[in-house]
Input
Amino acid sequence: MVAYTARRLMLAIVVLIGMSLMTFYISHAIPGDPARLASGAHAKAEQVESLRVQMGLDKPLPVQYMIYMKGIISGDLGTSVSTRRPVADELKEYLPATIELSVFALIISVVAGVFFGIVSAVRRNSALDHFLRVFSLVGASIPVFWLGLLFLIFFYKQLNVLPIGGRIGIGINPPTKATGLYIIDSILSGDGIALKSSISHLVLPSITLGYSSMGVFTRMARSCVLEVLSADYIRTARAKGLKETIVVYKHALRNAILPLITLVGLQFAYLLGGTVLTETIFSWPGLGSYSVTAITNLNFPAIMGVTLTITTLFVVINLITDLCYAIADPRIVYK
Amino acid sequence: MEEVILEIKDLKTYFYSDKSVVPAVNGIDLLVRKGETLGIVGESGCGKSVTCLSILRLIPDPPGKIVGGQILFKGEDLLAKTEAEMRAVRGNSISMIFQEPMTSLNPVFTVGDQLSEAIRLHQGVAKKEAKQKAIDMLKQVGVPAPEQRAREYPHQLSGGMRQRVMIAMAISCNPDLLLADEPTTALDVTIQAQILEMMRDLKDRLGMAIILITHDMGVVAEMADQILVMYAGKAVECATVKTIYKNPMHPYTVGLLDSIPRMDVDVEKLHVIEGVLPDLSNMPEACCFEPRCPDARSICSQKEPDLEQVGDSLVRCWKYCPEWRQ
Ligand SMILES: Nc1ncnc2c1ncn2[C@@H]1O[C@H](COP(=O)(O)OP(=O)(O)O)[C@@H](O)[C@H]1O
Ligand code: SF4
Ligand SMILES: [Mg+2]
Output
């Protein structure tokens, strides 16, 4: 197990290095002279030249890459062109909001999706099964922005039951910062008002974001459970005299869950991508909104920072799901 | 005479699809006494497994349904029991082992866990005690290093070992009746002999009744007391092993016996019964073996023969009826 973990970790590092090479390459493939851009339109040639030396742009490419990597490792992702603040500082502000949103959406979609899938499989061809299948198909095909707008109109405009916009109610102080995740921070600081407000602010955006993934989980769970239920060892379990609930929730589910673990990693990447639209619709102050601003301003250091952060998140989540899979399936050979 | 453990009367199990009805078991009668082994033989698809699964009421529904008959286990009709009452029978007083040792154990639980699960369920013993009993059972079925094996997962065991584990699981609650559905078909010959030897030994020690399904007449000759020959969901011949081997009556039984490889006769090619099983969903009112029968006459395709007592055997064939000579 230790060797397996180490091997997976090495692989993750290789992926991250590959990713850094790509962002580095892209930053150099952009037309235009960064030194000239940075020194302004009226700069003299000598000024541009000295800035070029100062920025390290006169050095050979491999050396420049090493400098760039050294920066990343020490947490220096460059300076934002539009705010003149370090990109790393800005990411630290926006990242927790995105993590909170996407993890919440992931939890909703996994828990609801897997549960619906099991129910659908066990009650195959019943009215409930047909309803859940349509429900999940709608989820997988409805565009995020449209669903978001529907929610806005229905729950906010018509019913006015759930708030929208931001992570916490206006006039409520955010909890004392520890992790940047409002739910966890407000629990840590025992702040009930902030907890309630931040959860109610999370509901609509995370359902919007997670609905389509939930559909994917429902359909995958249904087909996995159906497949497993016809396996020989399920017949053995029944022949032992076990109750049907134990047959399904112990013997079948424990096997059906295996392919779903891998799916969690993939769907998380999809959710991270979906945050761009969701955050924009619900004015959620996360990386999605941040990157939209960065892209419209051609703020390259910020764009690269976001790219690296998202990739790292993705690699880490997939590393975790791989390890979970290895724990859950005894047939995995740790070599 | 020993006590009757199981008596089946006119069992009918059908499978339904949109287009057709398949009478997989179509009026089977059988009787097994304490300590006795009944061999059910017949080629693939003739309804042997469905018969056994019907006894435990484990026919997948849909598409299957037991549509008629009685299954009397120690005098009580299993078909009249509730699902909860059936669960108390399964794995306890009637247990079953399957043809597929490679896939019949759950891959994500240890052998010990799967064994002790049934023990805890039916004997209500504590976890630790059940673990110990599981190890004892493994020892009884000849699994070497049982303590260690109990901690392993099925994929770490060979096919023969897995079938031993299945047998250990089946006998762990001292069943009155063991249903063994082709327990050795998937195993190679030497392992097959070892497993059969062990089963014979267990039967003598535990005194349980066994229904042994096989399509191998050689296996049934070694193991069984009585033989039921099935064809297309029906019994075509039923007698003691001795009677059947000395005097096979139904042409299908004769064909099956001719297809056993024998040590003493050096034949170029084994006899095979020509043709295939008929389409069960579309059976004419005739002897179901007629298309393949070397002895068939016109009466065979007009009416279906009944299962009749002829000498020491029960046979379903016109050859032994007065009508044959007309
Ligand atoms: N789950 C099922 N669904 C539909 N038909 C089935 C099913 N199981 C068995 N049958 C039908 O019952 C017949 C007898 O099957 P089975 O008892 O398994 O034969 P065998 O004698 O080889 O054990 C098969 O030919 C098939 O048509
Ligand atoms: S009844 Fe006729 S066809 Fe059927 S087995 Fe007997 S002889 Fe053959
Ligand atoms: Mg079979």
